[in-house]
Amino acid sequence: MIQLGCIADDFTGATDLANNLVRAGFRVVQCIGVPDGPLATDADAVVVALKSRTIAPADAVAQSLAALAWLRAQGAQQIYFKYCSTFDSTAQGNIGPVTEALMDALGAAFSITTPAFPDNQRTVFKGHLFVGDVLLSESGMQNHPLTPMTDANLVRVMQAQCRRKVGSLPYAVVARGADAVRAEVERLRQGGIGIAVVDALSNEDLLRLGPALKGMPLLGAGSGVAIGLGQNFVLGHSAVANALPPAQGLRAVIAGSCSLATNRQVADFVARGLPAMSIDPLRIAAGVDVAAEVLAWAAPLLQAGPLLVYSTAEPSAVKATQGALGVERAGLLVEATLARIAAGLVGLGVRQLVVAGGETSGACVQALEVRQLKIGPQIDPGVPWCHATCALAGSDGLHLSLKSGNFGTDDFFTKAFTVLP
Predict the structure, then answer these.
(1) Domains identified in the chain and CATH numbers
(2) Whether this model's pTM surpasses 0.70
(3) Alpha-carbon dihedral 227, 72, 212, 61, rounded to 10 degrees
């Protein structure tokens, strides 16, 4: 019987959360999609990874409720809805509609929401989300091709998506500890607030917040809140909770994110003189078999070390492509091509694969028919290595790192391969 049931709105976010839960002492299994039946292994927490961040709100709600039903059937005592630490959403959702649907299903009168993740420079103060030293709306996220974030006031952003009244749980309360937070939650609830955006500036804030959340039916957050939850449960600690099989096989990176961080990571890889190939969405749309071209290019190079395939581009280039093809078509064409490339690379012997970008990771994992991930060592905050069984990889299995576009140091694409044993 699992204790904490988690629903993540994309695959990189799911591994981000699973990584923090492992660090907090949980034994964690990550499932790709809703499982067909009970797990065959012990776990304190299960993270169900969905690809629901940018689909129609009604579809996101339906998938999330299906995940909730499965988690409750496995005995989950508390539900954690995990979204991106940059609060990726639009005025239509999907964070608000999914949160309220889960609250309705659980009979929850109140829930918190906070994307704070100080280890990755995501902090919330007076209800505003900061990325490093700048507001979310000045961080580059205002140029996101699917979910441009032009307002850093999360109370305002969340209220646009919700029918419940959204309020704020201020830093001055969080700093006083769990008892003060509990008292404020009750005051907010009595005042008609259904969802509160919680301020947090440091890991210490999240650790103080953790005990106050014990017994709350639903938590909505990025992955940061997870670090304070271990103290609320009786966990089956294991000294080898994050041990993975030894790494073997060839190495490759696929980058589909166009975030500032991933752009820097691509530039660093190329500057090192390592093999890299860019794919052009316009050529894909013209009917060129770009995936076949990439695999023919990659085959003789893989033995020499890691290579990179990327659709990452600067905002102006992304907008030009979207103008020519349309936003949805451009995204789907690139995702489908990168997914074919991922499967092809594994077919060529790649057994260590880094994928950058939430939508890209979802497409690649689905193409590889991965159903469960074991969480391994952290590469950078929020980004672990994982191991999966995969028919294309045979008995070796596949080491995967699913990186949120916004995460990781500039040298992530080379550093990642030094972490595996």
Answers:
(1) 4-232 (3.40.50.10840), 250-418 (3.40.980.20)
(2) yes
(3) 80
